[in-house]
Amino acid sequence: MRIAGLLATLSLTATVVLAFTVDLPRIAALGWTDRNLFFHVPMWFAMYALMGVSFFWSGAYLLKEAPDRDRRAREAAIVATFFGGLGLLTGIIWSRVTWAEALPDTDPQAWWGWDPKQTFALIALLMYGAYFALRGSVREEALRARLAAVYNIIATILVIPLTFFLPRYLGGLHPGAEGTPAFRTEDISPAHRGLFYLAVVGFIALAVWIWQLRVRLARIEATLTTAQSPLGEAA
Length: 235
Prior knowledge:
globular; 75% helix
């Protein structure tokens, strides 16, 4: 936990300072908004990383039904959804000042242009978020954990084609679509690339740190709940 916290603190502090003080070569058509590259995209990396953690612990739960494994999967899914939401929000703001700069704020198209990447990202988050609705609809703990684990594995697998393969195939304005700048050597400078990787490390470390804290708090809550229950008092 301390390692993740230290790494997140150092990496993100350096990212914020360097992102707004270092003179970087401009990326075509982005101007100063290119600095969002160090926040928007790493947030998605953090989401994918925590989805992977949640996927792992859901699979581990199906192999051995230990409550702590379900707890770890659930908390990782919460953190993954949080960073996915932040990634979607920063993407909306970024698209507003680049793709739709000429449109007035009152035009819905200024904020949401139905670009394939944006749209499939929203669908993926809603689908993944249904994991929590499923958990809330089943009262029996063991059954809830089993169903949630199975759904989580399926949802995580589907997120990859929805947010990566399909948008690239369909094209659109989002970087990475066919014919638009993305992460090739000719698209961004080595300085951008180095700072980007630093930000990715920082955001993933932050997500892991938050997950570890949430797991610890969830364990404490479970212990207190057991101690306060009639069975716990009788014991």
